[in-house]
Amino acid sequence: MLQLKHYSFELAFEYPFTIFKGTKTYQPTLITSLGLGNLTGYGEAPAIDYYNITVPDMVSSLEEKRAMIQRYALTDPHRFWHFLHHLLPGQHFLTAALDIAAWDLFAQMRRQPLFQLLGIKWERTPLTDYTIGMDSVENMLAKLDAHPWPIYKIKMGKTDDIDVLRAIRAHTNSTIRIDVNEGWTFDDAKALLPELQKLNISLLEQPLPRGEYAAMRELKAISPIPLFADESCRTEDEVKKCSDCFHGINIKLTKCGGITPALRMIKEARALGLKIMAGSMNESTIGSAAIANLLPLLDEVDADGPLLLREDVATGLKYDAGVIQLSGGNGLGIKFTGKR
Question: Is 211 helix (H, G, I), strand (E, B) or coil?
Fold first, then answer.
């Protein structure tokens, strides 16, 4: 019988983390574990307030369904996800934490790193970015100096942030991508595109509010910069909707429900000619390792959660100038170091 455990943390950020939707100084997160014999798999679901996801709510649902989850015979993580999908309808964050834990455990049972179990060859892995949250020009430039990196993701949301961006470009030759988190109107984006092109911005993520597909189609038709969906592509049923509005999608394991649906999203996106990124929700090393095991399937990656947090609950990933190195261990390749 599966042994289900969970742990709650509030992990402090190195700097206050500000995006268009608000500021936070710590990241609440739920760690789940599934044990069988002497093996234990771990998963993670960070709580995001603008999605109305809290750790106490996830814990309550988990305890309510504990007996049914523990009785499940884990013979195939794909089937386990479908079981969870019906057991916890609409609860993608919690499903993701359990799905990741199941894949970690199952790969350990098969004595393989997760990427090998999934048939992924470890080659041509993209570099992860380092995210700079919205702040004063002086503070953002200080963060660049403190964290030299080959790729930066810059959070924007106000049109006058273009002046901040000009200062950043004058300060670094690194690749810069922009994440607006739904902060602009169509007219804002259209007016700023020529300026972003002059600043050699490599991609623009979610410039318009979720659901504005017609406006995004028009923006895509005129954009010289690749446009990536984030909030517009939360789950797998939205991949096709984004295919004529964006050049690529940013898959968040937490939002889509875990590794299992993410693999389906990757396959569908490739068939539709979309570029693929996997993104961070400020996960610790546990959630970031789940992303990292999918690296060869991705064109771009934003898996910098452990770099942004002052605290962590696991070891197993190494970051070196954008390169993410796995530990080589079975499963996710991580070791849980939080409270037990």
Answer: coil
Residue type at position 66 = R
Longest dimension (CA), the chain: 59
Amino acid 50: pLDDT = 85
Cα dist from 301 to 20, 71, 173, whole Å: 21, 36, 19
> Among residues 66, 44, 63, 47, which one has the least CA distance to residue 55?
47
Check residue 86 and give its pLDDT.
Answer: 97
Residues in the chain with pLDDT values less than 70: 340
| Buried/exposed 101-114: b ≥16 CB within 10 Å, e otherwise | bbbbbbbbbeeebb
Q: Give the angle 319-323-326 at the CA atoms, nearest 5°.
A: 65
The closest alpha carbon to 156, from 178, 185, 186, belongs to: 178
Q: What is the pLDDT of residues 57-85, one digit of tens each?
A: 999 999 999 999 999 999 999 999 999 99
